């Protein structure tokens, strides 16, 4: 186990206790997986005496459930996997105190204070180190519709992070350009997989040579097999294929437990929790004072190559789903 990982685990377990609140419960709908966030939630319970009831599921699934439940929802807080869902749910979130977002780095911040980012991630191109030559790297995600990539590229149209990417694509490039790219990828025999991890396995096994994923998945595979013949890269600076997205949390306006939900968000934005998320989850911290994960693109480089996208504008998930249905991907 590396030194940064040891430090982050130790730091999380030594987080300064928040004033304990006995016999209180907090209900969290989490689109974040238990494997990553379960330890943080458990530590919050230990430090506060609060019992956290968690409903895990897909971000889109839980967002739909929250909207269907309306004022009758048992959820006090929604922890989303991507910014698109946060923007879509802004009407059901309570406004946060301005100071919650004041310490957050500007690219991740929600100016309307309807939700708070908890980590950042970047879209990347994963590739085979055995079968891809130096002159085959595409400059843009648009290039993947070219003949030289026929049948060699994996994607996951049903995956939430891919759908958030398509939403951002629509915002930046327009609906017609997004539709043309999707149809171009289909015509170029892009290979369909269920998620990010399965694309990495497919590249390693020789089924495809490239895949479109989030930045943090490959590091988890390399921890288990350092010799995996797979690496990842970004497109040229400013390309929509380098989209920067966030995970984040919002307090449900219908909750009678808003103060406790705010306490939980503050906990997630503490340096120890952020250090744990970046070291364990290979995501980017959203506050200063956190040691950078050496397996990630340096933070300054990330900001340099990321396209300008207002996270609040990538909330039209329904429009994206309609487009994906129209072209036959879902």
TrEMBL record:
<keyword id="KW-0408">Iron</keyword>
<dbReference type="GO" id="GO:0046872">
    <property type="term" value="F:metal ion binding"/>
</dbReference>
<dbReference type="GO" id="GO:0030288">
    <property type="term" value="C:outer membrane-bounded periplasmic space"/>
</dbReference>
<comment type="similarity">
    <text>Belongs to the bacterial solute-binding protein 1 family.</text>
</comment>
<keyword id="KW-0732">Signal</keyword>
<keyword id="KW-0479">Metal-binding</keyword>
<feature type="signal peptide">
    <location>
        <begin position="1"/>
        <end position="23"/>
    </location>
</feature>
<feature type="binding site">
    <location>
        <position position="216"/>
    </location>
    <ligand>
        <name>Fe cation</name>
    </ligand>
</feature>
<feature type="binding site">
    <location>
        <position position="217"/>
    </location>
    <ligand>
        <name>Fe cation</name>
    </ligand>
</feature>
<keyword id="KW-0574">Periplasm</keyword>
<dbReference type="InterPro" id="IPR026045">
    <property type="entry name" value="Ferric-bd"/>
</dbReference>
<dbReference type="Pfam" id="PF13416">
    <property type="entry name" value="SBP_bac_8"/>
</dbReference>
<protein>
    <submittedName>
        <fullName>Iron ABC transporter substrate-binding protein</fullName>
    </submittedName>
</protein>
<dbReference type="InterPro" id="IPR006059">
    <property type="entry name" value="SBP"/>
</dbReference>
């Amino acid at each position: 186990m590396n030194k940064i990982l040891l430090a982050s685990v130790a730091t999380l377990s030594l987080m300064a206790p928040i004033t304990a609140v006995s016999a209180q419960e907090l209900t969290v709908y989490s689109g974040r997986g238990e494997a990553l966030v379960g330890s943080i939630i458990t530590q919050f319970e230990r430090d506060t005496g609060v019992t956290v009831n968690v409903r895990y599921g897909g971000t889109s699934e839980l967002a739909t459930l929250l909207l269907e439940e309306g004022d009758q929802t048992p959820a006090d807080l929604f922890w989303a996997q991507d910014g698109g869902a946060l923007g879509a749910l802004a009407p059901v979130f309570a406004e946060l105190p301005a100071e919650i977002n004041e310490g957050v780095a500007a690219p991740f911040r929600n100016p309307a204070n309807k939700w708070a980012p908890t980590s950042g991630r970047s879209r990347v191109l994963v590739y085979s180190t055995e079968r891809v030559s130096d002159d085959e790297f595409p400059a843009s995600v648009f290039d993947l519709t070219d003949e030289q990539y026929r049948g060699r590229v994996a994607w996951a149209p049903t995956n939430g992070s891919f759908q958030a990417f398509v939403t951002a694509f629509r915002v930046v490039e327009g609906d017609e350009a997004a539709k043309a790219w999707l149809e171009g990828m289909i015509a170029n025999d892009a290979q369909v997989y269920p998620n990010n991890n399965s694309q990495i396995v497919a590249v390693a096994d020789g089924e495809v040579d490239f895949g479109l994923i989030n930045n943090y998945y490959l590091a988890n595979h390399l921890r288990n097999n350092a010799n995996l013949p797979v690496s990842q890269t970004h497109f040229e600076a400013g390309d929509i294929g380098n989209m920067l997205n966030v995970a984040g949390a919002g307090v449900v306006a219908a909750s009678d437990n808003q103060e406790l939900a705010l306490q939980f968000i503050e906990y997630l934005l503490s340096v120890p929790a952020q250090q744990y998320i970046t070291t364990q989850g290979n995501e980017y911290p959203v506050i200063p004072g956190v040691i950078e994960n050496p397996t990630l693109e340096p933070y300054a480089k990330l900001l340099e190559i990321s396209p300008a996208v207002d996270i609040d504008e990538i909330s039209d998930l329904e429009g994206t789903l309609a487009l994906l249905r129209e072209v036959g991907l879902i």
